[in-house]
Amino acid sequence: MWPMGWQWLRSSTLIKDSIKRRCIMKLDRISFRRYRIWIAIFVVAIISVVSFSFVDNDFEIAKNLDIFSTMYKELNNNYVDDIKPSEIMKIGINAMLESLDPYTTFISESELEDYKLMTTGQYGGIGSLIHKNGDYVVISDPYEGFPAQKNDLRAGDMIISINDKSAKGKSSSDVTDILRGQPGTSVKIQIKREGEDKPIEKTIERAEIKLNNVEYSGMLDDVNGYIKLTNFYQDAGREVKDAVVKLKDKGMKNCILDLRGNGGGLLNEAVNIVNVFVDKGITVVNTKGKLKDRNNTHRTLNPATDKDIPLIVLVDRGSASASEIVTGAIQDLDRGVIIGERTYGKGLVQNVVPLSYNTKLKVTIAKYYIPSGRCIQAIDYSKKHEDGSVAKVPDSLKVAFKTKDGRTVYDGGGIEPDIYLTPKKYANISFRLVEKYLIFDYATKFKISHPSIVAVKDFAITDDIYKDFVSFISDKSYDYTTKSEQSLDDLKKNAEDEKYYDAVKVEYEALKNKMMHNKQDDLAKFKDEIKQLLKEEIVSRYYYQKGRLEASLENDEEIKKAIETFKDNKSYTGILSGTIVLNKEK
Description:
Elements: H1 2-26, H2 32-78, H3 85-98, E1 105-107, H4 112-120, E2 122-125, E3 128-133, E4 136-142, H5 147-150, E5 158-162, E6 165-166, H6 172-179, E7 186-192, E8 200-205, E9 207-210, E10 214-219, E11 224-229, H7 236-249, E12 254-258, H8 267-277, E13 283-289, E14 296-299, E15 311-315, H9 322-332, E16 337-340, E17 348-354, E18 360-369, E19 379-384, E20 390-392, E21 400-402, E22 408-410, E23 419-420, H10 428-435, H11 438-449, H12 463-472, H13 483-497, H14 501-515, H15 519-525, H16 527-552, H17 557-567, H18 569-577
Parallel strand pairs: 11-12, 12-15, 15-16, 16-23
Antiparallel strand pairs: 1-18, 2-9, 3-4, 4-5, 5-6, 5-7, 7-8, 10-11, 13-14, 13-18, 17-18, 19-20, 21-22
Helix pairs in contact: 1-2, 7-8, 8-9, 11-16, 13-14
């Protein structure tokens, strides 16, 4: 706050000096002695008018900072217990920022490594995902080609000590902090592996870990190419361009760009990705903020890689920010068809401002507007209710805009797809088997007895494998409550509170017994989706993240719909021209 305050004071002083010089130049030939009183009155009056807003605002800043500093001093001097200055200050800063929006945040010096990862996709470490299971942290997914995988750390390995210190009871974030470090430095890890009697010790040299933006790309069939974009780190545009070029060499005639679950990232990379599919000089997004230097127009800078290839973008509720810029620009420019769910609705731009002592402030500086002129921000954080909550933009306040070729689109709540698909909902038993890591643990066991498997597209969960899985979980705890059972419990509680339960007790018990779930029945009823989850987890043991994603594509309803839309060229072109308007969100 102080630097901005002093900038205003300096501007005020410059204005005063300028006014003085102009007055003196005009009256240079008049006797200054004769008019000195009138000059003084004139200059003071003008300066007072010009300076009023600066002084008033600067005084408020200075006053409140003085109150804060004296309060902090007296708290430190008088509070009954010792206080930790950095900790209590961070709490105060975070509370202040929480009154604004969720994206304006303070980045402490200790969090700079996470900030680096957030913006560049790079960090120093061993390259693996981890999770907590019981008392210990377990390796979830070693990244292919990085130190963890090269040193034969495997999914399912339990970390029991790090640098000769027990890892028991440590959280995932605790272990992450220890495993990360300067590239070239080493970390000693002791693991317990399924099927091994003794702990295994490994000394692993940390490396610079660079996460890919394009997690997977490949041909779905002879003509349909698929690109899964997971991040918007540096070089995201180049990676998408390279994927398009490679897939075209393999015969791609139609392109599917998957942005589902992509929470966004760098704005310039969003522009670069749109540039892969639209020509040079096209406006992708405008940013508008309080300060004039925040008002910018971002246009494509290069010739398109392919401006004619049929394009479909897949989105869901997790597609946000930069994902929405890409999606919205493709829709507004009538360049491709959007399939999936309404996107998240984040139309705010953040910038990172350096603070003292190697800390930073990530602050919302502007809103972005896609080519039609609409802003897709779903919530107005400047207008908060008394309880602190904020409301979404109501339908009655949404404004209609036009795409390049005249289709009607709306602002105020994410990007609405051209073809809306209800997302797949997994059964309660499937959630529970994943949540309890039973599918994960079975895949670990499977890998021990099966050193290798066939290619992902050829591997299948046979009935014998599924039977073995059912046997594996037979003595494991994975009970769950269905929504129907929960509703029934709520009914009983309400009936008891209202003194009706005794009158309906017999009927209630009969209904409860009839509705009570049976885990064995559910294992049979939802066999196909559990098999799919098993396949994805097992192939990841052999083919890592790419294998998991490739396996997940086999029964993907959005991808099936995309291929169907490409085949029906009349429908594809009709959507883009506006002659066909399909179902909207339900």
